[in-house]
Every structure is written in structure tokens, then in C-alpha cells.
Amino acid sequence: MFLYKTVVCEKYGLHWYFKKANLLPNYKYYMGNVKDTIKKLISALGGKFSKELGIDLSQGISTEIFKWFLASKLFGARIGTNIAIKTYREFERCGVLSPEKIVETGWDGLVRILDDGGYARYDFSTATKLLEIMEDLKKFYHGDLNKLHEMADDEDDLEDLLKGLGKGIGDVTVNIFLRELRSVWKKANPVPSELVILAARNLGFISQTEEPLSALKKVWLVHTIKGKDFSDFEAALLRLGKDFCKKRKCSSCPMGKECRCKKAK
Ligand code: SF4
Q: Does 185 fall in a domain?
């Protein structure tokens, strides 16, 4: 392998070799300091939202997965991330972190928790939806989301089963929920959100023509950071896309130096 690499690289250069070997979506990741860029991205923007909330998904424990499901439902509305976090903290403070507790708390109690967290704009509708979702979760899956995953035939079916809870869960919520379960549930493999793709393109991790998920996975595979997983990388890109790229906050962007977007210069 070494001899092959040396000979072909002398003749055609590293670009050719890595393209040919299909190891990387773009040779510049080998030549540059991509690992440093990823490290900086995760440390400056933050990784998984579940971890930020103190939820440990790594062992696939049902109670932790449910907590993340509740948080994803709160993140899924058109509401600020800080309000969703504050509202989740309110559920935590009240000890309402299981399907049983949500049902027991009832509509009035849920509205109170949502209001206290600042979720007032969606308090009535979210309380109603949460109760409907819990009913289905208990009725069809014994209140256990791991059971729902077990029963899903494949990736698409998993998304459909989640979307079918209650009177329906939206694409955004399902995407948020599943992207942090990629390394926990084998059928969790959602497409990256538009914001992740936007940030990944701006930082030069993927090109306009590449299929985003497989290209990003290749970048991560080559530049894995100890103690982090692909979901941390994806969450950091989402934070960058949402809080900076989409709002065109280039002047205060922590990744300005690493950005390859011509418009930002
Ligand atoms: S400099 Fe601008 S375009 Fe580049 S990553 Fe930051 S916010 Fe996005």
C-alpha cells in the first residue's frame, strides 16, 4: 500500500490518490487541518443537545430516550432554542419526565409547566398533543420508545411510526429526535437538515454535488475526535447553520477564519 501510494502520488499527486481510493470526498481535507476545524467547531458551538440537557443516550436506556423525545418535541416548534431548553428544565424540575407522569399531570398541569418555561405561545396545543402522544405510546408500545424501534421494519418505517403517534408528529421533531440516536438505534438514519448542509458547505466539508449524509460521514470517519461521535459533529453544524449562517452573522461567527464561503469574505 505504501509503495503504491508513493508511486501514484509522485506521478499524479495526493488529490488523485484519495479521489481514486474513494477515501475522502475531497482531498483538501487531508491536506488541511480539518480535524482542528472539527474540534474547534464542536468546542465553540457545542455538540449534542441531549448531552447539554444532561440526557445520556449512549446506553440506549428507555427512560433517557423518552427524556430526549420530550425535549425533541419542545425543540420541534418554531420557538427559540433557549425557551425550549428552559421549558425542558421545568419538566425536569417538576419530575414530569415519563409517559405516566405526563398523563398524571394532566392538561392543566402541563399548560402550567409550559408557561413557566416560557412556552406560552404553544402551551394549549402542546399540552393536548403531548397527552395524545402518551396515550398511543402506552397503548401500542407499553410506553417504551425502544419497543417502537424494535417494531419498525426499517429506517423509513421507524420515522412513520414516530410520525403516527397521537394526531401526528412533524418531520422537524422526528429529525431532531433521530439524529442524536444514530449511534444508539440502528434504524435511526435521518437525512441531515438543511441547516446542517448549509454550514457543512460553508466550511467546505461537502460540495454542492455530493450526497450530504454519506459525504459528512466520510469526513467524520477520517477525522474522528476522541470522546465525540458523529451526532456531536452534526449538532455543531446545526448550531452554526441556525445561529450564524442562516442569520448571516458572519462578523461574529466563531468559524469565520475556517469558512470557505466566498460571500463571507
Ligand atoms: S463566516 Fe458566515 S457563512 Fe461562514 S460559517 Fe460563519 S456565518 Fe456561516
A: no
By most ligand atoms within 8 Å of CB, the mutation choice from 194, 239, 248, 255 for ligand 1 is 255
pTM of the model: 0.85
User: Is residue 54 a part of any domain in this protein?
Assistant: no
Domain of residue 15 covers 1-31
**DSSP-derived secondary structure letter, 204:** T
Residue 36 cell numbers, joined? 482542528
Q: How many domains does the chain have?
A: 3
What is the C-alpha to C-alpha distance for residues 239 and 99, in angstroms, rounded to an integer?
29
Q: What is the mean pLDDT of the chain?
A: 89
Pair (172, 71) in one structural domain? yes
Burial per residue of 178-188, b for 16 or more beta-carbon CB atoms within 10 angstroms, e otherwise: bbbbbebbebb
| Side chain identity at residue 111, one-letter code | V
